[in-house]
Fold this sequence. Notes:
One of its GO terms (cellular component) is cytoplasm. This protein has helices at 2-10, 32-38, 50-54, 62-75, 111-117, 119-132, 148-167, 184-188, 190-193, 204-212, 230-245, 262-269, 281-289, 293-306, 310-322, and strands at 22-27, 44-48, 80-84, 137-142, 175-181, 200-202, 250-252, 273-276. The protein is of the alpha/beta class and 323 residues long. Strand 1 (22-27), helix 2 and strand 2 form a beta-alpha-beta unit. Phosphoenolpyruvate binds at residues 46, 48, 87, 182, 203-206, 253-254.
Amino acid sequence: QLKKLKNLKKRPTVSKDGFPLQIAANINNLRDVSSAISIGAEGIGLYRTEFLFMNATHLPTEEEQFRAYRYIVKSMHGKPVTFRTLDIGGDKTLPYMKLPHEHNPFLGYRGIRFCLDHLDIFETQLRALIRASRYGNVSIIFPLVSTIQEFKDAKEIYEEVRHSLVKKGYKIGHIHVGTMIETPAAAMLADKFAKIANPINIGTNDLIQFMMAADRGNSLVANLYLPFDPSVIRMIKYIVDCCHQNNVKACVCGEMAASSVAIPLLLGMGVNELSMSSMSILRSRSLIKNLNAKAMRRLVNKIVKSASSEIDVIRLVHSSIAK
Ligand code: PEP
Ligand code: MG
C-alpha cells in the first residue's frame, strides 16, 4: 500500500484510458510549498498572494514580495506556478489598511476592483512577480474579474510594468497572463476571455455563490450552495469548451476540484488542470487513474441534457462510476 502511494507521487496524473489531467497545489503560504513538492504536485495551480499581505504588519515592499515569489518559483524547478494577484476585500482584510464598511462585502470592493483602484499596490506586486519570472515557469491571473474591460486594464498595466523593467535591464522569463473566472458575467463571456487570457482558472468557490445567490459563508443559506446543481455544471462546461476552442489551458481551483463527485465530471469535460490543497492530491490522483475519460465525457453530455437537480447529477455520477 505504501509503495503504491509512493509510486503515485512520482507519476503524472492520467486516466485509465490515458488522458492527462494535471494536479497542482493551492497554496496560501510559503511553508505550503514543501508539502506540495513532497506529495508530487505537478505545479502550483493557485498561490493566493493576499496571505503574504494579510500576515504582515505593513504593505510588503517590492523586495519582500520578490523574495517570496522567487522562493516559490525556484522551489518548483520549472513546474508551472500560477500567481493570483492580490484578492483583498470580501472576507479578507488587511490589518494595517482601513477599508470602507460595506453591506455586501462579497459583492463589493475586492479583487481586481480594489487593485485597479490602488495602482501603487498593484504595480509594486506586478514588478515583484515579473522579476521572479526568470527563475521558472510563471503564470499571473487576476481575481474576481467581471468585465473584459477590467481584464484589459489589468493586462495593460502589466504590459507597462513589464516594459519599464525591460528598459531597466531586468532579465524576465516567459509569463502567461490569464484570469480567474468566478463571476457569472465573466463566465457568460468565456468565449471572449479565451481569446485574450491564458490560462483560465475557474474559481468555483465564488462562482457557485454568485450563480446560486447564496453567500458561501452563510450557514442559513448553505442548503442552496450547490456545487453540483445542473446550472453550475453547465456553466463550468461552457467555460471549458470555450477554452478548448481557443487552445487555452482550463483549470479548476475551487474546493470542488478535490471532490470525488466533481472529478469524474471535470475529467469528462477535458479540464487540463485541477488545483487543490496538497492533502487531497494523492487521493484525487488515484481516483483519476481508475476513471475512463471517454465514458466520463458521455456522462457529462447526459447530465447537461437531462439533469434538473443536484440529486440527479450526483445519482448519475455514482451510477456511472459503479459500472
Ligand atoms: C474561488 O473562488 O474558487 C477561489 C479559488 O478563490 P478564493 O477561494 O480564494 O476566493
Ligand atoms: Mg474566489
